[in-house]
């Protein structure tokens, strides 16, 4: 382990080096957890102690990478797998009224779970020097206020800090550039967040002896109004850093999680890769529509129509084995994207931030089939970079459309060359190490200012 740790200075003279105790708090799918594990590994390599608090189902994932695990129940993730949860995640395909009804029912069920997770996260938060958190971990900035330590917000997509360059990834894009519209979309989004989270943080603040959160509270400051560092876990090569971003908002490169030393593919996977031309990867992560089996049949048919071999990943519920699968397709639970994607001819995925990053870093062209949310933003960004087909929304996904897109990305030489060149540039970055340095600098600056 490296021994690069913060040196605490007083009066211009160095004193005993100080090892930071870092508490990390995240909630969501694997895509919301993996970047924190990657950052935690980089922090640990820099000599710091790291506790990562997240849902129970990710305990072994955290521990296997050498990090301390902080308990959080995963009831809300199970709730996301119910019919109501799937109906909300698929963007309300059955209509606005149906969507609102499901959202209302889901919210009523989720509220007590969210309150409980705030309390569980607080129980795991033992004397940290800094708290690093995902926006879904709504209690984290309040813990930082209670403890008097700095908070650091991690964003997997540029959706909080306003800019004139592009709209909030959750907002619709205009057919023309409008800096006024772009900047406005951030204010509309962030203004609603305190109303959505106060229902399950208000009670904890009362229990902790904190005054009610001010109505002027912002997600871009700590609850007491003090400075908040915002680390974006994406590459400035993929999204150029806006000139109007403030100094406390940074994007220093992706945070890839390498396969653990000694990891080996299963024998069926190794044999399949050795048996022919590089296959096409297809996986939709944890984005499970109403009929994953039917979606899998569509994918298998599209691969056959494109004349491509395929590796179809089912591990997190987006796809599911159904009926006969030809010898040209391998059904796979999961494998580390950083290991698997470079061995593929192309990557077909849902447009999650982490999967998008892994595909771009691997230098492989993509077909992105977004379900909704920020996935649409990443899908179009891949296309605009010239390294993927035009996006195919899940609602418009057909065998013919998917087969045509797979054919394009596996046979267009110029597109493939652009993808390979972009991947080479991205692999030269070390975003996690840069984020660690920025975090160390921020903690020391806050500490010095408070002395």
From TrEMBL:
It holds the Pfam family EryCIII-like_C. Keywords: Transferase. One of its GO terms (molecular function) is sterol 3-beta-glucosyltransferase activity. The keyword Transferase applies. GO terms for biological process: carbohydrate metabolic process. It comes from the Eukaryota. The keyword Transferase applies. Residues 23-82 form the Glycosyltransferase family 28 N-terminal domain. Residues 309-440 form the Erythromycin biosynthesis protein CIII-like C-terminal domain. This is Glycosyltransferase family 28 N-terminal domain-containing protein. It comes from Diacronema lutheri.
């Amino acid at each position: 382990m490296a021994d690069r740790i913060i040196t605490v200075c007083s009066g211009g003279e160095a004193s005993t080096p100080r090892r930071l105790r870092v508490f990390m708090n995240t909630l969501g799918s694997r895509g919301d957890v993996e970047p924190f594990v990657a950052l935690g590994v980089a922090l640990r390599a820099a000599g710091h102690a790291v506790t990562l608090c997240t849902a129970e189902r990710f305990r072994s994932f955290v521990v296997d990478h050498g990090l301390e695990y902080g308990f959080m129940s995963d009831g809300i993730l199970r709730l996301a797998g119910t019919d109501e949860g799937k109906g909300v995640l698929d963007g309300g395909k059955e209509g606005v009224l149906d969507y609102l009804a499901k959202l209302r029912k889901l919210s009523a069920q989720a509220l007590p779970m969210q309150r409980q997770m705030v309390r569980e996260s607080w129980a795991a938060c033992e004397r940290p020097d800094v708290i690093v958190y995902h926006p879904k971990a709504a209690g984290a900035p309040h813990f930082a206020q209670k403890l008097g330590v700095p908070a650091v917000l991690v964003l997997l997509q540029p959706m909080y800090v306003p800019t004139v360059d592009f709209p909030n990834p959750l907002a619709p894009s205009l057919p023309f550039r409008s800096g006024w519209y772009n900047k406005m979309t951030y204010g509309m989004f962030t203004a609603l967040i305190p109303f959505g989270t106060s229902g399950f943080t208000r009670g904890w603040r009362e229990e902790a002896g904190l005054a009610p959160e001010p109505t002027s509270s912002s997600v871009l400051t700590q609850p007491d109004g003090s400075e908040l560092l915002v680390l974006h876990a994406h590459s400035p090569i993929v999204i150029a850093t806006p000139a109007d971003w403030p100094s406390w908002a940074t994007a220093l490169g992706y945070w890839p999680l390498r396969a653990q030393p000694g990891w080996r593919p299963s024998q069926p996977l190794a044999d399949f890769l050795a048996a022919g031309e590089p296959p096409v990867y297809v996986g939709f992560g944890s984005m499970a529509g109403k009929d994953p089996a039917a979606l899998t049949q569509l994918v298998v048919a599209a691969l056959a129509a494109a004349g491509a071999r395929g590796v179809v990943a089912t591990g997190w519920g987006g796809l599911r084995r159904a009926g006969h699968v030809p010898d040209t397709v391998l059904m796979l639970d999961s494998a580390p994207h950083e290991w698997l994607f470079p061995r593929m001819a192309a990557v077909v995925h849902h447009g999650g931030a982490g999967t998008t990053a892994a595909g771009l870093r691997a230098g492989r062209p993509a077909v992105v089939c977004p379900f909704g949310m920020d996935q649409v933003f990443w899908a179009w960004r891949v296309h605009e970079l010239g390294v993927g087909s035009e996006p195919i929304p899940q609602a418009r996904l057909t065998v013919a459309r998917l087969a045509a897109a797979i054919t394009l990305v596996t046979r267009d030489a110029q597109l493939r060359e652009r993808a390979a060149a972009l991947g080479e540039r991205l692999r030269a970055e070390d975003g996690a190490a840069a984020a660690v340095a920025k975090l160390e600098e921020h903690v020391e600056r806050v500490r010095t200012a408070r002395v």
